Automatic annotation (TrEMBL):
Protein species of origin: Winmispira thermophila (strain ATCC 700085 / DSM 6578 / Z-1203) (Spirochaeta thermophila)
Enzyme class: transferase
Transmembrane parts of this sequence: 343-366
EC number: 2.7.13.3
Alphabetic keyword roster: ATP-binding, Kinase, Membrane, Nucleotide-binding, Phosphoprotein, Transferase, Transmembrane, Transmembrane helix
Domain Histidine kinase/HSP90-like ATPase: 602-692
Domain PAS: 374-414
Keyword Transferase: yes
Signal peptide: none
InterPro entries in UniProt: HATPase_C_sf, HATPase_dom, PAS, PAS-like_dom_sf, Sig_transdc_His_kin_sub2_dim/P
Reactions catalysed according to its record: ATP + protein L-histidine = ADP + protein N-phospho-L-histidine
Stated name of the protein: histidine kinase
Length: 694
């Protein structure tokens, strides 16, 4: 047992050493370009920031191939010798390569550089044409493709310049330039109906600047790359874009953040070096955590974002509001207006609203003051007394007319309030105010004490609001003279009514005396015809007497109950003519109507003639006489229907005969009523219909 444990004890130091080496891996990071290229440094920064947060134990060794300033074929062997001599004795866990020249160099010399591990994992970024590398023939190679968004940038150009018609494309003849040109040609077919394209390639810098200077209006530049001209002269992005900006009057757009230099470069949907670096660091992190490098693959999605330069936006008058919501603006001033535009414009809008509200309040205040002055002026000019008092009866405002009506000074009115002016107790004032608040328009009469005796006032009040609080506005009118005049008129009317009743009484008495005198004449030995004429005269006098009797008994009314009057005269006429010899069955209906005397008198005389005619000619032998009188209608038009059982006769002929006094009288009385009388005989009965106006 002891012999088995001893070998394990000797192996412990070696296991600890291996673990220590694995905990502190070394990474070689080769960049295609030198540190003067912002793109390169952004990638480097993105990798280091992401790895330091995930794997702080990692050591990254960085080298710059500098293939922009020198031809790669001239650098290749010296750079290989440099690396072999520099990193003797250091073993790397993986190699990182940014952009094409570094990746080609690593794939070409991987076995020479890393003899201890010929298939060492290689992770790349910034590669445009990944397919050209035939990664299937290179094991353990993965990375991040540099997919620029040319269409996204063209869309931004059209969004910010709706009148754009020409896009001039700047590109050089480097490997990267040729790749970018091919990508551009693949992207433009959807735009060929809207835009024209001019590709500025294979030019010297002077030729390029001349072409840029001559660009027409409604055009823009798309800068893909120009780091070496046709004569082989190298230019950094800052140099080339600065020269272009100096001569260009048109905005310049690009697809990479490291080309965001020069005052005419607006921006675009750009490839961010830092995003490439962070994505590359994520692949390295997965590798360090034990994932098979063959399974990492290639990240194909475009790592782009809308990026703009504030200076160029200002030069070309492009408002920030047109930019996408997720856009980043470089060089944005520190002012709130630009850093927090939503907050700034919201604050401006709020300020405008507050100022508007303040102005409105000031306007309303001034208008209210003017209205109040006008109200007070009108208040004072009212011929009637005016009071404005609160819900406790305290006088707030009054006019001079109120001082005259109540015979009190201004100080006295405000001191005593409503209770003192009207002579009310507190409870009475509370009850009055309650009624005034409940009713829209409340009217009351009140007797108050004046210097020369009692005064009678009428108060009309309505609830109002005064300075936002409930109040009552009351108009007070001195009704003393009116009441005195009214009382005098009432006394005069009562005296006239008494006098008129006395007149009616005396007229009725005189008519009855005349009727009695006629009755005395009937007792003498007179011819039958004379007796009949006297009886008819008696009946006519009875009709008039009955009317004056009703007027005498009426309690101040100038209208007569027609049903009572008709029943009275019918009874008196029958008594005068028949003296009980023939029974009469009356059917009288007037539905409680009341008519003025001027209408009732001719109506009564007409009925007198018709009843007299019925008694003379319609009374059946040995049977009661049935007479029906029906009055109907309303104000403006009435109908009287008179029916008896008499024989048929020529009514029109009787109306025309001058010796037929009764029917002549009926016709004239009907005309007096502005009416007409008609006759018909139906079902063995005479029917007289009188239509007249009230």
């Amino acid at each position: 047992m002891r012999s088995r444990i001893l070998p394990l004890i000797f192996l412990v130091p070696f296991c600890v050493g291996i673990s220590s080496l694995q905990a502190e891996p070394n990474i070689l990071f080769i960049h295609s370009y030198d540190p003067s290229y912002q793109w390169t440094m952004d990638i480097d920064r993105g990798v280091r920031e992401e790895i330091s947060s995930r794997h702080p134990e990692v050591t990254i060794y960085t080298e710059f191939y500098d293939s922009k300033h020198f031809a790669p074929e001239d650098l290749e062997q010296p750079f290989l010798s440099y690396l072999l001599s520099k990193y003797v004795g250091i073993e790397f866990s993986a190699v990182l390569a940014s952009d094409d020249n570094a990746l080609r160099f690593v794939l070409s010399h991987r076995a020479e550089l890393f003899p201890y591990r010929p298939d060492i994992p290689v992770l790349f970024c910034g590669i445009n044409d990944v397919e050209s590398y035939d990664l299937a023939s290179h094991p353990n190679v993965a990375g991040v493709a540099e997919r620029i968004d040319i269409r996204g940038t063209l869309d931004l150009m059209l969004r910010l310049h709706p009148d754009l018609s020409l896009v001039a494309v700047i590109v050089d003849d480097t490997i990267t330039g040729r790749i970018n040109k091919e990508l551009f040609l693949q992207a433009i077919p959807p735009y060929e109906n809207r835009l024209s394209f001019l590709i500025m390639e294979n030019r010297t810098m002077d030729e390029l600047l001349d072409d840029v200077r001559d660009l027409p209006e409604h055009s823009a530049l798309l800068y893909l790359t120009f780091v070496r001209d046709r004569e082989g002269t190298p230019f950094t992005p800052l140099q080339s874009l600065s020269l272009i900006s100096d001569v260009s009057s048109r905005p310049v757009y690009t697809c990479w953040d490291f080309f965001m230099v020069g005052d005419k470069v607006v921006g675009g949907m750009v490839q961010r070096g830092a995003l490439q670096g962070r994505e590359l660091a994520l692949l390295l992190s997965r590798l360090l955590e034990g994932e098979d490098p063959a399974s990492l693959g290639v990240v194909e999605r475009p790592l782009v974002a809308p990026l703009f330069r504030f200076e160029a936006l200002q030069i070309f008058g492009i408002p920030l509001a047109l930019l996408p919501q997720d856009a980043e603006v470089e060089g944005l001033p520190e002012s709130v207006q630009y850093r927090f535009p939503g907050f700034f414009w919201s604050a401006i809008l709020l300020g405008v609203i507050l100022l508007s509200l303040l102005g409105l309040i000031l306007f309303l205040f001034i208008r209210q003051r003017r209205t109040e002055r006008l109200f007070r002026s009108l208040f004072q000019c009212l011929p009637d007394g005016a009071l404005l008092y609160d819900t406790r009866g305290n006088i707030l405002i009054h006019n001079r007319a109120a001082e005259q009506i109540f015979e009190r000074s201004e100080l006295d009115i405000k001191k005593h309030g409503l209770a003192g002016l009207l002579g009310l107790s507190r409870s009475e004032v509370a009850a009055l105010l309650s009624r005034q608040r409940e009713e829209t328009l409340y009217t009351m009469q009140r007797e108050i004490t004046g210097k020369d005796g009692p005064k009678f006032v009428e108060i009309v009040s309505l609830p109002v609001a005064f300075h936002g609080t409930p109040a009552v506005l009351a108009i007070v009118r001195d009704m003393t003279d009116w009441r005195n005049t009214h009382q005098q008129l009432e006394r005069s009317i009562r005296e006239k009514e008494i006098l008129l009743k006395e007149v009616h009484h005396r007229v009725k008495n005189n008519l009855q005396i005349m009727r009695s005198l006629i009755q005395l004449q009937k007792t003498k030995d007179l011819p039958i015809e004379a007796v009949r004429e006297l009886s008819q005269t008696q009946s006519r006098l009875s009709a008039l007497a009955a009317l004056h009797e009703l007027l005498h008994r009426a309690d101040g009314s100038e209208r007569i109950r027609v049903d009572i009057y008709l029943s009275t005269i019918a009874s008196q006429i029958a008594s005068s003519l028949l003296e009980g010899q023939i029974p009469i069955e009356w059917k009288i209906s007037a539905a409680g109507m009341e008519l003025p005397p001027d209408t009732v008198i001719p109506l009564g005389l007409i009925l007198n003639e018709l009843i007299t005619n019925s008694i003379k000619y319609a009374a059946p032998a040995g049977a009661p006489l049935e007479i029906e009188i029906l009055l109907s209608g309303e104000e403006g038009g009435y109908t009287l229907v008179y029916t008896d059982p008499g024989p048929n006769f020529d009514f029109e002929r009787l109306l025309a005969e001058k010796n037929s006094l009764g029917f002549q009288l009926v016709r004239e009385l009907a005309r007096q009523l502005r009416g007409d009388i008609a006759y018909r005989h139906e079902d063995g009965k005479n029917v007289f219909t009188l239509t007249f106006r009230g």
